[in-house]
Amino acid sequence: MISPAVLFGKTVEVSKSSDDVMVSRIITAELLFEADNKKEAMKLLKQVDINKIKESSTLYYLAQIKLDNEYKVQEVNSICNRIKMLGDISVNLACQSAILLNNNKLDEALEMSEKALDKNANSSTFLAAAKSNDALNNYDKALEYYKKAVENGAKHPAAVSYALLLEKSGESVQALKVIEDAIKKAPESPVALFHGGRISGKGQRGINYLLKALKLKPGWPEASYILGILMIEDNRNREAFNFFTELINKGVTDPLIYIGASRAAASIQNIEKAREFLNESKKYENNTFRFFVSSIKIEIESGNTMEASLMADEVDMNNIDEIVELYDAANIFLKLERYTKADEAARKILKKSKNSSRAFLILGEIFCKRHLVEEGKSYLKKALDGDMTAVLRVDIQRKTNKCR
Fold this sequence. Notes:
mainly alpha
């Protein structure tokens, strides 16, 4: 006999053994949580009887899902106790580490995960060690353990975390490979598809991933914003403008959508509309840097480089900490020939991600623009030696040839 589990209108066939039925429900619930269908996810998890689960790795996965979705710690403790009853001390310790991490007891969580690994190395203990090292910014160790967790069968959320840390460390090509493997394992995961689209960047592949993510999680502002920006980067400016304005006409009020609409309007030289959308975003936007960047980009698009430069002068680098924002700032400063500030932003990226090819690329361009050819080509070579896509490699080679 086959017992079906329903997921987004599709039927997933599972065998009738207790563990397989429970695993199917847990995985489906995870994907429903990702799609913001919390009510159905929680209803499904109520049908999961932990006493019928005999695999400790399945129980650890369930514990992680409940912690990620703000279930009471008592419920997770009962899962850890069930793992202990099964006699799996290592995964029980991993489960305890997850609770400590959830309670922001980072050092204790790390110590507990190390004890778990000492007992037995498996997907659950590797993942516990990865998460605790990640939280403490021990990125090299976290990458090592995420890799081992994924190789030993950890579910797709572990692969997503691994890919995001790879990207943060400047290894974007490897990050894309990992996220695409996650998509193959969980093709209905809106989160994996979203990051697949975002990391893929310019081109139809990234757009396709984001379209699939939005089918599973309609109206997702972050996915909609990235999709529209990728359209602009692909010179589908009018399509992007229509996409954003349609969302606004439907009543979407998320600031990202207005900022995206502003960028799209500027790309078709409708500067008046671009400013209108950007001003509208002020009603909802709490990220002042993102608003500021969009304002500067509109002025650049409209040819008001003097105004853009004056606005860029107001950017305080001490208030920028996220790598994505630093990269945005560096590119704007570079475009406005504010090389000192562009250099500062690029070096701040390198402090966070020592092998960032994109930071090396920015530094290479700065030195080439200043006619410091040897230094410029040296940084461009570092960028070329790094983890870059084929499109970027062609771009870097072109810039290297022009550096003289």
